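To whoever picks this up:

The nightly regression suite flagged cytidine deaminase as changed. Nothing in the input moved, so I suspect the structure step. Input below, exactly as stored in the fixture:
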Amino acid sequence: MEDLVERAQSARTDAHVPYSEYRVGAALRAADGTVFTGCNIENANYSNSLHAEELAVGKAVEAGHREFDRLAVSSSERDGVTPCGMCRQTLVEFCDDDLVVVCDEGDGTSEYRLGDLLPDAISAETLGK
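Regenerated output under the current build:
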């Protein structure tokens, strides 16, 4: 688990955050152990900004991965940041409710399950697919 948090910490150094100065890094582990990282990339039009978790998911899916077991996130503030609602919904598309989400608090970590962070999420099942 420490390695995954360290990968998220490393990824946040690549963040492009000229407006908020709030760096976030994410490290997503696929079921086969492959790790994909992402960082937030801000845009002056905030709605076009990319979140670290989204970038990690996008890289993983592009590489053909669809099963994940653990995600670590770390912010420059080391404040225990959790994925935002939009990122939670993106994760639900590809991850089970039992995905472990590890949040870097600077002096330790907190762990959550995706299903606890986003209960009753919109899914293929709720859409009748």
